[in-house]
Amino acid sequence: MDDSKRLPELRRIDFPTDFLWGCSTSSFQIEGAADTDGRVPSIWDSFAATAGKIRDGSDARVACDHYYRWQEDLDIAQSLGLNAYRFSISWPRVISDINGTVNEVGLQFYSDLVDGMLARGLQPWATLYHWDLPQYLQDQGGWENRATVQAYLHFADVISRRLGDRIKHWITHNEPWCTAMHGNWDGMHAPGKRDFKAALQVCHHVLLSHGLTVPLLRRNVADAKVGIALSLHPLRPASDKPEDIAATRRHDGLRNRWFLDPLHGRGYPQDIWDLVGAAAPQMHDGDLQAIAVPLDFLGVNYYFPEVIQDAPHNPPLATSLTHDPTLERTAFGWEVAPHGLVTLLKRLKQDYPVPPMYVTENGASYEDRLEDDGSVVDTQRRDYFIRHLAALQEARQAGVDVRGYFAWSLIDNFEWAEGYLRRFGLVYIDFETQQRTLKISALWYRDFLQAPN
Predict the structure, then answer these.
(1) Do 90 and 134 contact (CB within 8 A), yes or no?
(2) CATH class in words for 3-450
(3) How far apart are CA 60 and CA 45, in angstroms?
(4) pTM, entire model
(5) How many C-beta neighbours within 10 Å does residue 328 have?
(6) Which residues are catalytic?
(7) Which of 18, 33, 364, 431 could pair covalently with 330 via S-S, beta carbons 3.0-4.6 A apart?
(8) If residue 403 lies in a helix (H) or strand (E), which one and from where to where?
(9) pLDDT tens, 386-442?
(10) What are the residue boundaries of the structural domains of the chain, listed by start?
């Protein structure tokens, strides 16, 4: 290992005693039980049932069978020494139809799940929307239809009234970029559209639903802490040519500022608004004020930086990503760049009046395998976590107010359009037997968290 990859010394005692240590999961990726106890189809069920959409032709009808094995999974989380657990709530499991009918059995599942977290000393962090829109709403236009905002508010109201006595930390949306752009611009995710104008309208309605939900949660939940989790990327130009520098600014405008600016009261960035022209979203008076409601925290999902070059024949932004094959990468092809986390967090502190931040996702996919002796030797993932936590500590020492870290993910799962080809978990899942095996990375995380002071 060269000096740039030498593992830093890392101790839990160097972090604050009240620092949150967790893992993140999402409902569609782990629960399974697709037709069980009143759950109705989501857009991802429909997407996975469409030939050619999932790389390995799989679906999430069983996934990790978490709906039946949640106690075992929470036992694992407790055994690692976590003090927080981030999960998402399946809208199609809780609200049965376009009329907003509540499925009591589905709601009870999450009530039991939260009780299980609390019994194990895990602070519950609930994500209300992690991409699994009910198909009955997509049939009415999905997030392009402003009525979906009201449907989301009803969902949030039902959940928070039932669970708000036990859940104090709420994330309204996970990665609106993916909901809007991957779902409706490049078609990589459900519902699989390829319409830039639709994607921008979806983005606006998702952000609006966030803004309107924050005060609702605060009304329903005493001492609620409400935020949003954004997928953010530090960017660098492919060269020092003026056109690549300008392209990087444009890319930043849609990738990062299109979300950060309105959330912090600046409206959509004018340079990008002018660039997208007729594709700009339709808004009502008061929308931007609603979106800019103050946050209690900002969730930052960090995986990799992006390198940008000018691409005049690639509208609407006239940019493209470059790929340097000499850089260290995960099995997914993502650059491994721990210092990018420092760059990103410092930029957020410098450019925006950000509230306290939490790293709500950070992790890596590698080609894990179960060895004959029953072990899973994922030393690359272990080293990835060590290096990124050291970067997080560097950002904290530079004055960035980061108060917690959630590894992605607790267990291997259904990785969206990749199916089961990508493993991100600290825990290995044999998808045929559903056997759980702690990987080397999980054993390291456990030892790090439980090390004596």
Answers:
(1) no
(2) alpha beta
(3) 7
(4) 0.98
(5) 12
(6) 361
(7) 364
(8) strand 402-408
(9) 999 999 999 999 999 999 999 999 999 999 999 999 999 999 999 999 999 999 999
(10) 3-450
